[in-house]
Amino acid sequence: MKKKIFVQDLRPGMYVSELDRHWRETPFLFQGFEIESDEQIEQITRYCKHVFIDTEQSYLINPKHRPANNKPRPAAAPAVEEKRIVKLEKVLDRFTPGHRRPPRYQDVTTLEEELGHAREIVTETRETVYNIMGDVRLGRSINTTAAKKVVADMVDSVIRNPDALMCLNQLKDKDEYTALHSLRVCVLALAFGRHLDLSDVELNLLGIGALLHDIGKMKVPNEIINKPGKLTDEEFSLMKSHVPHGVEILEQTHGIPSIAIDVARYHHERFSGGGYAAGYKGEEIGLFGSVGAIVDCYDAITSDRSYHNGLSAHDALNKMYSWRGRDFQPILVEQFIQCMGIYPIGSVVELSNNSIGVVVSINRARRLRPKVALVLNSDKQPYTPSKVIDLMDPSLETGSTKLEIRKVLPPGEHGVIPTKYIPLGA
User: Fold this and answer.
1) Residue range 65-72: mean pLDDT, rounded
2) What gap in Å lies between CA 148 and CA 81, rounded to an integer?
3) Which residue, 272, 278, 323, is CA-closest to 298?
4) How many CB atoms lie within 10 A of CB 123?
5) 85, 259 contact by CB (below 8 A)
6) What is the mean pLDDT of the chain?
7) Residue closest to 292 by CA, chosen among 273, 268, 319, 317
8) pLDDT digit string, tens, across residues 164-203
9) Is the distance from CB of 334 to CB of 342 less than 8 angstroms?
């Protein structure tokens, strides 16, 4: 039962289910939490005049009564959002034959309309990630308010049209790998979560976990993270320690639900049990852990690092498909490939008229017919300027012949650098 209560009457043990303002205007990460201290009450009073408590989940119902210090308190009830998180098996059921339902989301903006918003979001998120990493290095607490805001903005953008942020995800700098990797993994997780029909609440929780999944690397020496050659056994042990370090940091950060921490906890676990840090396997890894493992791996193998050159998106997805059942949950890998598209954004492709282009936007209904930036004509001479075509456009047909993609080329083929042709917004 929900009950309105003025903030001056709040006491530890009460379960706050709703505020008198939007949650994004406050430092509280997600709706639904138990008050555990007077400090939390002081924080609430700085933002709210009244709140609503859930009397069924509140340990303390009478605002005039406070339990004795020696009275044992029951374990805190899980947050409302965590209890509403869809389980892995339910997501898998959605993609079994006969169970597929209409997708939850439809694009409501075009790529071009969304790019301006996405560019601003990336700029703010990049700054936020650097600030959070700097704070963790110095032993300071994570700014959860800033993290919540940028993730919520990314969720909104991905729901409107995920292609804009996915385009900007192509911009990579190996000298900024750790920070930008966190940003890219967050975008990938949200785009994948949208494809899996996760709710807005679930996407926000997944996004927070993905953005902070590698925060434990702030406790690992940079010379190990960026070492060009193979790590020694001792160095690899230090590298693997970023998982428990990250989990510990996030568990000590007020307001981050345990379900979000699952991304950090499980993103290096593998389906057959061959991962780290604890050797979890199969469905023990859960939904958020499984999604985190897939998107973290994808970004890692498609990125240039000091010790390897990144694969093309097409080659990376082929490899990950071959690893299904060993490293990743098979249905989730297949759905990730569908989410990314047969021709992922950034793919260099040869068309049926021998021209060369770069995929800039996928078609979620007709995945063989994305939008392509034309780069070279059939004589391999540059289009000046390059132009974007939609392979669904019937005007591109010549008689009964449709313009279509013939094959995917390696990045750099014919001197084509994909990022030069991906629209970046104004």
Assistant:
1) 42
2) 15
3) 323
4) 12
5) yes
6) 86
7) 268
8) 999 888 877 766 777 899 999 999 999 999 999 999 999 9
9) no
Contact yes or no for 161/111 (Cβ under 8 A): yes
CATH superfamily name and code, 88-101+109-340: Hypothetical protein af1432 (1.10.3210.10)
Nearest to 22 by CA among 144, 149, 117, 187: 149
Backbone angles phi, psi at 17, to 5 degrees: -105, -20
DSSP for 22-64?
-GGGSS--SS-EE---HHHHHHHHTT-SEEEEETTT-S---TT
CA pair distance 100, 93, nearest whole angstrom: 8
Q: Report how far residue 156's alpha carbon sits from residue 73's, in angstroms, rounded to the nearest whole number.
A: 38
- pLDDT value at position 66? 43
Contact 264, 288 (CB under 8 A): no
* Residue whose tokens read 């005039």: 64
Q: Which amino acid is at 423?
A: P
> Structural domain boundaries of the chain?
2-62, 88-101+109-340, 348-420
What does each C-alpha distance from 424 to 10, 29, 41, 122, 420 come to in angstroms? 48, 30, 44, 11, 9
- Which residues of 303-404 form beta strands (DSSP E)? 348-351, 356-361, 371-376, 382-390
Separation CA 18–CA 3 (nearest Å): 10
Residue of 26, 250, 263, 44 lying closest to 142 (CA atoms): 250
Please tell me the distance from the alpha carbon of residue 153 to that of residue 155, in angstroms, as a whole number.
Answer: 5
Residue 25: the pLDDT is: 63
3-class DSSP state for residue 67?
Answer: coil
In this predicted structure, what is the pLDDT of residue 69? Answer: 44
Beta-strand relationship, 33-34 and 2-6: unpaired
Pairing of strands 371-376, 405-409: unpaired
Sequence letter at residue 352? S
Q: What is the pTM of this model?
A: 0.81
CA distance 268 to 214: 11
How far, in Å, CA of 409 to CA of 356, rounded?
Answer: 9
- Give per-residue pLDDT as tens, 333-349: 999 999 998 889 989 99
Average pLDDT over residues 384-407: 84
Name the DSSP class of 415: G
Spatial distance between the Cα atoms of 322 and 342, rounded to a whole number of angstroms: 15
Closest CA to 48 of 12, 8, 3: 8
377 and 351 in contact (C-beta within 8 Å)?
no
Specify whether the CB–CB gap between 182 and 209 falls below 8 A: no
Length of the chain: 426
